[in-house]
UniProtKB/TrEMBL annotation:
<dbReference type="GO" id="GO:0046872">
    <property type="term" value="F:metal ion binding"/>
</dbReference>
<keyword id="KW-0378">Hydrolase</keyword>
<feature type="binding site">
    <location>
        <position position="90"/>
    </location>
    <ligand>
        <name>Mg(2+)</name>
    </ligand>
</feature>
<dbReference type="GO" id="GO:0008934">
    <property type="term" value="F:inositol monophosphate 1-phosphatase activity"/>
</dbReference>
<feature type="binding site">
    <location>
        <position position="88"/>
    </location>
    <ligand>
        <name>Mg(2+)</name>
    </ligand>
</feature>
<keyword id="KW-0460">Magnesium</keyword>
<feature type="binding site">
    <location>
        <position position="91"/>
    </location>
    <ligand>
        <name>Mg(2+)</name>
    </ligand>
</feature>
<dbReference type="GO" id="GO:0046854">
    <property type="term" value="P:phosphatidylinositol phosphate biosynthetic process"/>
</dbReference>
<keyword id="KW-0479">Metal-binding</keyword>
<dbReference type="GO" id="GO:0007165">
    <property type="term" value="P:signal transduction"/>
</dbReference>
<feature type="binding site">
    <location>
        <position position="70"/>
    </location>
    <ligand>
        <name>Mg(2+)</name>
    </ligand>
</feature>
<dbReference type="InterPro" id="IPR033942">
    <property type="entry name" value="IMPase"/>
</dbReference>
<dbReference type="InterPro" id="IPR020550">
    <property type="entry name" value="Inositol_monophosphatase_CS"/>
</dbReference>
<comment type="pathway">
    <text>Polyol metabolism; myo-inositol biosynthesis; myo-inositol from D-glucose 6-phosphate: step 2/2.</text>
</comment>
<comment type="similarity">
    <text>Belongs to the inositol monophosphatase superfamily.</text>
</comment>
<dbReference type="GO" id="GO:0006020">
    <property type="term" value="P:inositol metabolic process"/>
</dbReference>
<feature type="binding site">
    <location>
        <position position="230"/>
    </location>
    <ligand>
        <name>Mg(2+)</name>
    </ligand>
</feature>
Length: 285
């Protein structure tokens, strides 16, 4: 119920602040950094320490709920319908290692694979995004999302859009060519057959990209290859801000939390979210 979700939200918020202290005090260096599948997929001792702090605190406070975290995930334990905390201890690990101040802790709670509580906290800029299903989402606890006037233009199609895309850590495989061709198509002028969006950004954090869409400062975010812990918390924040998440592949209106392909559109119901989805899908090459 809504009181229970509020209680979970408050507890996750306290964990986000504790995580933020560990993250901002950390001094990541190459000796404590390892790569998982390639040199674009980093993990540090701090990712593990933060996840450990969060999972052990959650196990004491909510022993009946499952825990699903980036650093302890194994394919033998896929996401289920049970109430589950879905956590990325440091989203934007590459930024963290390089001192580029766009990393966050992403704390989500999902029931029936539907995100219902989300906290995304960037401790470097002290920016907090939070949301509870049915209770709205907020910037820094008190400013309702989307932020009024953050982007005064109505959502009016790809040509006027500022969008987020990511190279991600999958740098090969069957989806690589699609990604590269689509990025080129989005950027190219219309005279040359492209869609020419206004511009493209890569913050290096899936959660912060999706929260910027919730805020209204970005119009759209597309990525294939990231995971449920990258998007769970931001997903409820975006939905509560009137935004939508659909599948990153054309014609799949129902996005799955563990589907690993996401297309997020900002809240602007008066001005054609569905049209923008269709325009974007038609650009996937
Ligand atoms: C990564 C970031 C990045 C996205 C990758 C993710 P991590 O998460 O969210 O923006 O492009 O797909 O894996 O590894 O920094 O937690």
């Amino acid at each position: 119920d809504s009181t229970k979700l509020r209680e979970i939200h408050d507890f996750l918020l306290s964990l986000a602040h504790r995580a933020g202290e560990i993250i901002t005090k950390a001094l990541p260096d190459s000796s404590g950094t390892g790569s998982k599948k390639n040199s674009a997929d980093l993990v540090t001792e701090y990712d593990r320490a933060v996840e450990n702090m969060i999972s052990s605190s959650l196990k004491i406070k909510y022993p009946d709920y499952l825990f699903h975290g980036e650093e302890t995930y194994s394919p033998e334990n896929p996401l289920t319908d049970a109430p589950t905390f879905i956590v990325d201890p440091i989203d934007g690990t590459i930024n963290f290692v390089h001192g580029f101040p766009y990393s966050c802790v992403s704390l989500g709670f999902a029931v029936n694979k539907e995100p219902v509580v989300g906290i995304v906290y960037n401790p470097f800029t002290k920016t907090l995004y939070s949301g509870i299903q049915g209770q709205g989402s907020f910037l820094n606890g008190d400013t309702r999302l989307p932020v009024k006037g953050a982007n005064p233009e109505p959502l009016s199609g790809l040509t006027n859009a500022l969008i987020a895309i990511e190279w991600g850590s999958e740098r090969g495989g069957p989806n690589w060519d699609t990604k590269v061709r689509t990025f080129a198509h989005l950027g190219q002028t219309r005279e040359n057959g492209g869609a020419m969006v206004r511009s493209m950004r890569s913050t290096g954090s899936a959660a912060l990209n999706m929260c910027a869409v919730a805020e209204g400062t970005l119009d759209l975010y597309w990525e294939g290859g990231c995971w449920e812990w990258d998007v769970c918390a931001a997903w409820v924040i975006l939905k509560e801000a009137g935004g939508i998440v659909v599948d990153g592949s054309p014609n799949e209106w129902e996005a799955r939390l563990d589907g690993r392909k996401y297309l997020a559109i900002r809240g602007a119901p008066e001005a054609g979210q569905k049209e923008l989805v269709e325009q974007f899908w038609s650009c996937i090459q």
